[in-house]
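JOB MANIFEST
job_type = single_chain_structure
chain_count = 1
residues = 388
[input]
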Amino acid sequence: MIPRAAESLVKEFLRGFPIVTVTGPRQSGKTTLACKVMADRPHRSLEDPDVRALAVDDPRGFLSQLPNGAVLDEVQRAPDLFSYLQTHVDKDGRMGLFLLTGSQQFGLMSGISQSLAGRSAFVELLPLSRNELEAEGVAPAELDKCMYTGGYPALYHCPLVPRQWFPAYVTAYVERDVRRLLNVQDLDTFQRFVRLCAGRSGQLLNLSTLANDCGVTHNTAKAWISVLEASYLVFLLRPHHASFNKRLIKSPKLYFLDTGLLCWLLGIQEPGQLEAHPLRGAVFETFVISELRKAFFNRGEPPMFYFWRDSNGNEVDLLIESGGGLIPIEIKSGQTLNRDFFTGLERWNALAGSMARNPTLIYGGDEVQERRGIRVLGWRQVGSVGWG
């Protein structure tokens, strides 16, 4: 197992809460981490029909078999169990009794917020970060290979290459979750929808256009986006509210959480195809923002991320709220610095004034420097620099 940066956070929460819930996409390493942290406790997976049947039909009896707590996997499969967990941990009074995992935000989060409010801490475990891979000495040395492979742990534990692993991942997990959540009958249309979303990673989300291109209704497209969010495959970056006397774009931007999955959906079969691919810039932007999200989640901090764009096309790729100010970040995939890379940041700094903090350019090269008051970072430094 590649050590996870969030392990210390999980242990810290277990000392102060009776329950800790680890969420994230399927195959991101939640069960492996949970079983490592609670190696001395039983492990029960509610994906197993017999275990789930007992938890659903006799929740008190199920919990009575676990007097000292346990790891409970995929707990969203037995939502009524949350109320019984509340009574169980309140009566027991000990901290660190249960470590729950779940791969879907639907059901899991609503059930916990209703029944376990104040009793459970939350940790979001995303696929492996660049920092975690480097610490273990298995990080791809080249940017294109890094983006092409992505961060799912299985790709660093087994001999399969991404183009072999991702089809099985999508079939075994994504489609099953979709059927369970939405009862989608036409999976071919849904697969086309997901691929259309991949072609829009890093772009403004226009549900009407997306629905028309896929041949579904606007409401269906909206529901399917929600499922992709709930399954931790995509996330939406919201526009920042600061106007600076300009009319702002109000639509969110769509991003995939893992660039390996994104590349496979785009039909990229090997890293070399990325070099001249027309969406390379979008893949790199997705990589940078995803790595930053991982860095925040691994510290237990909710990422307060936004973008800024006005009606005249002026834009900053990412704004991070920090200490009452905003850290503007421009993302460029080019490997050679040029003057145009700095234009957006300089324009935004002039508009934002005292709200601007540590303006940063992240690009596809390797140099680390400061130029005209702007911090310049190469792609390798994305997750290792403090952003707060």
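[summary]
The chain has 16 helices and 14 strands.
The mean pLDDT is 90.
exit_status = 0
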